[in-house]
């Protein structure tokens, strides 16, 4: 049988199930990635499970999100994470080393391996010929404990690349083109596999840009072949001996097909407030801007900063604008300094920030009220920047740099300069990027600051209950809207009681108080439209509402990672059988659930009644036997305890 690259990766790691689209499979995980916004919970979960050392080939804990140390909380958590890494046998990347995804790519990513990360953009490492998947923290915890990762076998969409990118068009425009065509749901239940003659025209970091934002399409993973370019990249990192070739067999079949002629692309931009709201830059050219932001895991490469440097070299940014530079790794920053690019940017008026996620996750660089911000980040969901009524556009470094010179959104092709040619370094420094764990962990004690609390105990779902609809929401509700990120919220990532006070505040700032009133009186439910829970993998977006008494979520459909997070914490996820029934349910309605334990085990479709009326809503679930066991136990932690 002729296999594509994604099928080869899955087949090589398949532990249970069959490779039939839609069937649950269990796969072996070789590597894991955690970052500090999600990693504290993972480490607490490892401790709760009594794990001595992780069972993976390599696991790494990165500190890249919560870098602003305005009080003790983030600093304490960094100490906790380092002690946990030493205790459990995990590599540790300290603050300032950079964003997890490019650093992992530089230090640990290996073709042919699987990677599971508690960050939705873990899929970026698919650029290396890996099967790299983002998941909720507790799924990553299970993988670190040696358990399989369970997921429904995705369909494989083959994306054939032909041609070569024109001047002033770069990898960001490729993934924006995919989003323009397919939207934020276009990759749900799929692996996107890029192949064809155009692939060899893309560097390893160009592929990272494209693979990273597969998350914005809702894809399970993105896979690129491992070819001579990946071998060259590993050589620059001193790891050439870890290279293997991985590519689709001749005649390999894909479930779906797409083709992009790179030569025909033009500069693109995603308008507020969705990565899927993509138009040509020419359509919005001339709109005033306040900020251009370059960096993040969505444009992490040397050339992404160097091209901006060359565009602004010898010039000054427009008055009233801010050019924010967010280096993605210390390794990269060293080379940019050595080759004069940082000097070019600073001389032009840029602001230099530390290597990390920073403004991408709302950690600084928030834009002014009512002003446009151009960002090379992967997401522009409402409020994600840290400014509630933000106006964030997503674009390439070329468009961001050109626009900050003129003060308005500018098609970079209109600049009166030749397109800069960037020469990539042939060798990078790898010293001090990862701290290896000690061989003997017997004397290691976990360092816990006062902000770190234990995970609350949750009771299993009742058999008969009535719950009010506390919120009714529209389509594409993101995890940033369910539970905001940013410097105000994320320092409480290891304190569920406190972080829950921020739940749904962007949608309804009275939610917390209303939920607390009902928490001990049966709880509540929420209703929404399509693609509920898109975006970040942070399990806090399920865990905090669960603490506040969320029992049921009823929507038109779910984003993959958030759906699993709801199950993991004992929240019943249901979808409308008839989408028009969404209109029948109002905020404040009470729904009756009867004999739910037996019902969900025997039926995938059933009715729930609107209390005080003769109306019923037909709902459904798509839960496996394992999902049902977890749900009826009150969540995966209870389920694990029952199995011990």
From TrEMBL:
SUPFAM superfamilies: Aconitase iron-sulfur domain (SSF53732), LeuD/IlvD-like (SSF52016). Residues 510-578 form the Aconitase A/isopropylmalate dehydratase small subunit swivel domain. Residues 371-390 are annotated as: Disordered. Keywords: Iron, Iron-sulfur, Lyase, Metal-binding. The keyword Lyase applies. InterPro entries: Acnase/IPM_dHydase_lsu_aba_1/3, Acoase/IPM_deHydtase_lsu_aba, Aconitase/3IPM_dehydase_swvl, Aconitase/IPM_isomerase, Aconitase_4Fe-4S_dom, Aconitase_put, AconitaseA/IPMdHydase_ssu_swvl. It catalyses: citrate = D-threo-isocitrate. Monomer. NCBIfam families: acon_putative, PRK07229.1. This is aconitate hydratase.
